[in-house]
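Hi V.,

Quick status before I head out on leave. The structure for the redesign project is tokenized and pasted below; the design run finished overnight.
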């Protein structure tokens, strides 16, 4: 009797262990190939994302369609943003540090920003109406945090081939490509460092919502035509 009772109990534990192992394997494959979960630690992307939001990021969106101006991207900041984290606290506000998901924690060298300049673009701050210009045309920025200027820091940059110029939506709270002017690489992030695009806010529940991909950011001539 004792032996027959012990056998189902052993089988039960084995089944539970295999089920957990399979769930972790499937989760790892999904996270590695298609989707991942990240935690937003700061206000640098308000009003789109707030501090404490958990977001679902698609790794495949940019495979079918290239990155365009106005896209929000999650990227690996090593070699561009990440080296200046040590001893330069403000850059931490731009991080999209990966959150816990089935006990797995991601890297703190991951960031989230909006694409302002594409390869070959000439981005300038600012025109006589205090707007950013791209290739001589004023950039329309409906996503900016209310009351923020497009930038209080003046700059004129030409984005090299294969790189992006990135800014946060809450410009007065964001450490971004502007913070790295004069540093090696000048704050330009390589396209091959892009991890993916945010597609869903999953936490907190009162902010649960899809994150649609915006239309390409439009530009206007300097006289507003």
């Amino acid at each position: 009797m004792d032996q027959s009772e012990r056998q189902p109990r052993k089988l039960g534990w084995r089944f539970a262990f295999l089920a957990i192992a399979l769930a972790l394997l499937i989760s790892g494959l999904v996270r590695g190939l298609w989707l991942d979960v990240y935690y937003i630690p700061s206000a640098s992307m308000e009003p789109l994302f707030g501090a404490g939001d958990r977001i679902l990021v698609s790794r495949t969106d940019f495979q079918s369609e290239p990155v365009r101006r106005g896209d929000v991207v999650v990227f690996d900041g090593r070699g561009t943003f990440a080296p200046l984290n040590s001893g330069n606290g403000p850059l931490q506000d731009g991080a999209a540090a990966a959150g816990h998901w089935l006990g797995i924690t991601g890297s703190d060298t991951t960031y989230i920003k909006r694409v302002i300049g594409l390869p070959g673009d000439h981005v300038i701050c600012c025109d006589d109406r205090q707007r950013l210009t791209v290739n001589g045309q004023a950039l329309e920025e409906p996503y900016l945090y209310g009351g923020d200027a497009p930038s209080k820091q003046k700059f004129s940059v030409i984005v090299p081939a294969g790189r992006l110029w990135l800014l946060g939506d809450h410009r007065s709270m964001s450490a971004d490509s502007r913070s790295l002017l004069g540093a090696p690489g000048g704050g330009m992030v390589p396209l091959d460092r892009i991890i993916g695009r945010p597609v869903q806010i999953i936490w907190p529940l009162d902010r649960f919502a899809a994150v649609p991909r915006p239309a390409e950011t439009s530009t206007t001539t300097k006289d507003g035509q």
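Above is the designed sequence. The chain has two helices and 13 strands.

G. will cover questions while I'm gone.

Best,
W.
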